[in-house]
Amino acid sequence: MLTxxxxxxxxxxxxxxxxxxxxxxxxxxxxxxxxxxxDVTITGVLVEKVQLRGPHxxxxxxxxxxxxxxxxxxxxxxxxRAGLKASVIPLGDLxxxxxxxxxxxxxxxxxxxxxxxxENVFDVYPAK
Length: 128
Fold this sequence. Notes:
Elements: H1 2-28, E1 39-51, E2 58-63, E3 68-72, H2 76-81, E4 94-101, E5 109-117, E6 120-123
Parallel strand pairs: 3-5
Antiparallel strand pairs: 1-2, 1-4, 2-3, 4-5, 5-6
């Protein structure tokens, strides 16, 4: 009898842990709510390569005025499907991003829909 109850309790605990594990990425996704300060186009030099881990892909570029911008891309798998992989754009190359600026204008961050590099266009959030 004790073994049956222990087994049922263990299954319940494992199910709860698994549910929480898979729910964490959903809660960390923030959508576009913090980026409604208007459309922005930024051209700059890539200073931190594309990273595809976490809830969204990221990269950093420095514009012609020397300002460092944190660029938020689509979630990793979606950015990857758009052709923008971690090793595609070399550090030091010029890129242009199009998206929406962070509501807090003291933050130099934009969530972008499109990345342009040379003749390459990566629509990480393509128009429907």
